[in-house]
Design a protein that fits this description.
Distance between the termini: 36 Å
Radius of gyration: 17 Å
Number of strands: 0
Strand content: under 5%
Low-confidence stretches: none
Helix content: over 70%
Structural class: mainly alpha
């Protein structure tokens, strides 16, 4: 359950910020900025959640392996 909630919150924050940034880069700040941003966010969040939830175990293992290797080299 903790993994699910973490992924939900993290993907929300990342999708919100990234969709806002990309919308700003592509369109600038105009009268329709918020409506374009909200559409981009609503499309991005489900994809970000699904991808993060699926990849998180592999990324955690990879980061643990890299951390061990880097700490041996230090």
């Amino acid at each position: 359950m903790q993994r699910f909630i973490f992924t939900l919150i993290f993907s929300f924050c990342l999708s919100l910020l990234m969709s806002g940034w990309v919308t700003f880069i592509n369109l600038g700040i105009g009268s329709n900025f918020l409506s374009h941003w909200s559409v981009a966010f609503l499309n991005a969040w489900p994809a970000a959640f699904t991808i993060a939830y699926i990849l998180s175990p592999s990324v955690q293992k990879l980061s643990a392996t890299l951390t061990r290797r880097l700490s041996k080299d230090a």
